Structure prediction request, 79 residues.
Amino acid sequence: MDYSYYKEMIKQGAELTNAALEKKCTFYQHILLVSVTVFAIVISLHSGSTGGTLLSYIFASSTILLAVGMLSMAIVYKG
Prediction:
């Protein structure tokens, strides 16, 4: 019996799997880059002197949620 066809299909499957994994990692890398950039912009544009207590709570919660999102995306990317 000739198994060359099956060996070729296994090789092709491995190449496609590697290509899909690279695209997935690139996607997570871009999402992480965008979230870090937005995080930096949000922190740099915030002025602590203006606004009330409610605005401070909104800023703090959005900053915490963005930080948690970045950490989870970093874990997914490195995992």
